């Protein structure tokens, strides 16, 4: 086998591989003999059909199959010989194929980039600090109350805590525009779901009022034809509803699984959950800053094949949000996912090389700590721990996660870390 290599562009490589004709013809004869031995032919006992007859019938298709198999085999032999690490499937381009002639073909593919990690001491991480206050807990209780609340019709004036049922029709320069009209539309005030000024124009009105509200679409509005345009909405208030909050008593606590201790026990449980959420949020933010810093200080070439693979992964994840039903999902262009895919592939390559460079190994103790941390959020942690431990595939996934965390900790040990205080709400919304 003869092999010559050429660097065509960036990470792309091209191998010119020659397979001797003797190997091709010998392999074809071997395959034809297998057919003759194993296939029943009319007029002949099994295995007794002449090879010449079998050759006339099957040589063309057998030759094509053999050539494909030999290109695959000799490609893998060639990359082993040249010590290459392909980042995706190769494209084979055979030259003219003739019987009793050598097979000469080109294999075009990308290789993984050479990565050297540096600049860890230049990574800047602003570590969030936060403590949960009584007012944070009270605010969470209020949120839970709203979730359990009911609505009743009211003759009160509309305020930012009301829900209204309205008819509206919007016009720009006296013309109704697409999406600017609705009937019996239910709007919960104070949620910021409408364009600025729309809700403010309804506040203070009562059931039965008819009025106009002039407002302007934001310059960054998603519909190009409406950006920055002034619109006049004719609005009729059909109903005004006010929220009725449930009492904070033992029955309310019971709705959240608190059988004893009432509201005090509920607050304790809420604080515990908020602390768990806070810990995970801080951990994720620090991780993102560390990985972004790693990326900013280590520019690498990225194989297009890996980006394309990652785009397909992101597409599948997006389609799952539509229920996985391909018939009812929109066409998702690759451009939507391109930048995210590049970033994920880059971080994956850098982190993988860093783990290799630092000889970081997955630790079972760390993995079990990670599982225990996840299990603590469930009613029966021991059952969750058993589930993770008995399934080898799931445990190995957690082991990989633990390996990643070990690597993040190692990166942070060299990074420039400062602290910044946040309130609970600031941090959760940041």
TrEMBL record:
The answer to whether UniProt assigns keyword Chaperone to this entry is yes
Protein localization: Cytoplasm
Q: Where is it found, in Gene Ontology cellular component terms?
A: cytoplasm
Gene Ontology terms for molecular function: peptidyl-prolyl cis-trans isomerase activity; protein folding chaperone; ribosome binding
Instruction: Give start and end of each PPIase FKBP-type domain.
Output: 161-246
- Report which reactions are catalysed by this protein: [protein]-peptidylproline (omega=180) = [protein]-peptidylproline (omega=0)
EC numbers for this chain: 5.2.1.8
Database matches in InterPro entries? PPIase_dom_sf, PPIase_FKBP_dom, Trig_fac, Trigger_fac_C, Trigger_fac_C_sf, Trigger_fac_ribosome-bd_bac, Trigger_fac_ribosome-bd_sf, Trigger_fact/SurA_dom_sf
Say if the entry is tagged with keyword Cell cycle. yes
| Major location category of this protein | cytoplasm
Protein's job: Involved in protein export. Acts as a chaperone by maintaining the newly synthesized protein in an open conformation. Functions as a peptidyl-prolyl cis-trans isomerase.
Q: Which family does it belong to?
A: Belongs to the FKBP-type PPIase family. Tig subfamily.
This protein is called Trigger factor
What gene is this protein translated from? tig
């Amino acid at each position: 086998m003869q092999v010559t290599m050429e660097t065509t562009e960036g990470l792309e490589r091209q191998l010119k591989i020659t397979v001797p004709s003797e190997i091709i013809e010998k392999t074809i004869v071997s395959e034809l003999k297998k057919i003759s031995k194993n296939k029943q032919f009319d007029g002949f006992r099994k295995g007794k059909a002449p090879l010449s007859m079998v050759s006339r019938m099957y040589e063309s298709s057998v030759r094509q199959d053999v050539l494909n198999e030999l290109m695959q085999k000799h490609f893998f032999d060639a990359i082993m010989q040249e010590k290459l690490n392909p980042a995706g499937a190769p494209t084979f381009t055979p030259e003219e194929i003739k019987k009793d002639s050598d097979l000469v073909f080109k294999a075009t593919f990308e290789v993984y980039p050479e990565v050297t990690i540096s600049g860890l001491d230049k990574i800047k991480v602003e570590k969030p600090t936060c403590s949960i206050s009584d007012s944070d807990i009270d605010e969470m209780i209020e949120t839970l109350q709203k979730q359990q609340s009911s609505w009743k019709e009211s003759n009160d004036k509309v305020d930012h805590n009301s829900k209204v049922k309205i008819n509206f029709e919007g016009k720009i320069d006296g013309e109704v525009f697409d999406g600017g009209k609705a009937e019996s539309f239910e709007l919960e005030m104070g949620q910021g779901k409408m364009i600025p000024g729309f809700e403010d124009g309804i506040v203070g009105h009562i059931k039965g009022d008819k009025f106009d509200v002039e407002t302007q679409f934001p310059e960054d509005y998603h519909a190009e034809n409406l950006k920055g345009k002034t619109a006049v909405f004719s609005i009729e208030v059909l109903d005004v509803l006010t929220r009725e909050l449930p009492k904070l008593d033992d029955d309310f606590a019971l709705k959240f699984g608190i059988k004893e201790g009432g509201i005090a026990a509920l607050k304790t449980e809420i604080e515990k959950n908020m602390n768990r959420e806070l810990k995970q949020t801080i951990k994720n933010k620090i991780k993102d800053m560390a990985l972004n810093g790693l990326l900013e200080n280590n520019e690498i070439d990225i194989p297009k094949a890996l980006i394309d693979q990652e785009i397909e992964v992101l597409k599948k994840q997006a389609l799952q949000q539509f229920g996985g039903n391909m018939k009812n999902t929109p066409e998702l262009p690759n451009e939507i996912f391109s930048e995210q895919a590049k970033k994920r592939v880059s971080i994956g390559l850098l982190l993988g090389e860093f783990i290799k460079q630092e000889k970081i190994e997955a630790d079972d103790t760390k993995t079990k700590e990670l599982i225990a941390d996840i299990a603590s959020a469930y009613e029966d942690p021991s059952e969750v721990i058993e589930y993770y431990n008995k399934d080898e595939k799931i445990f190995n996934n957690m082991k990989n996660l633990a390996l990643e965390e070990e690597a993040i900790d190692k990166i942070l040990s060299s990074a420039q870390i400062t602290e910044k205080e946040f309130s609970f709400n600031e941090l959760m919304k940041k």
